[in-house]
Amino acid sequence: FGGRHWPLKPTLPACDADHALHGEGWVRRWALRDQTLDRADMRYRHRGDEQGAFPFAYEAAQAVRVAEGGLRIDLTLMNLGEGPMPAGLGLHPYFHRTPDTRVSFSATEMWTPPTNEAAGALGPLPGGLGAGRAAPLPGGTLDHSFVNFSGEALIKTGDIRMALRSDAPILHVYAPAGADFFCLEPITHLPGAFGRDVIKPGGQLSVSLRIGVAVDDRQG
After folding, report:
1. In the prediction, which pLDDT does 23 show?
2. Three-state secondary structure call for residue 94
3. How many angstroms separate the CA atoms of 70 and 162, rounded?
4. Which of 28, 69, 79, 83 is at a distance of 20 to 30 A from 200, taking alpha carbons?
């Protein structure tokens, strides 16, 4: 970034021995700033001077709220440094999966996962997923990003119907073959293309997520 290269240590070697996976937020301790029966506000401050870690100073704020209709998470990132900072945010909710699970959401293109040899590539949507109608998850592993996400996804598993809403522009779908779970991850950046989003000094980036009971089952 900015003509300079920083080697990063693996975030969690037990999970991925080769890569700085998902940043610091999921493996570092957060400070609880405020708490009620239905809300928790947390902060994580990163100094950016730890060798092998992300080399930019920032503060992340996370607000988790529970209401009668479901759960809301707001995640905000602020650049505390004196120069521009590459940035990206994402949330990684897991959902139960059975053979009759159906997922519905709208997008325009799909980004294939990057490899050690090459970045991912944009291409057309696969049959079913991302077309705005209920579709089954594929039998093989899916680890793809759906671009220009409409902001809402509906999940139907048996009698359970859930709605996911987010202001993120991309929905990443992770569904490993043979697993009893899958993930719908609202993200602000494409995996393998980190650094296209830049925060100016004092600037912010944010993303929100709501998970609740689906009240509109027309697509499910």
Report:
1. 84
2. strand
3. 9
4. 28
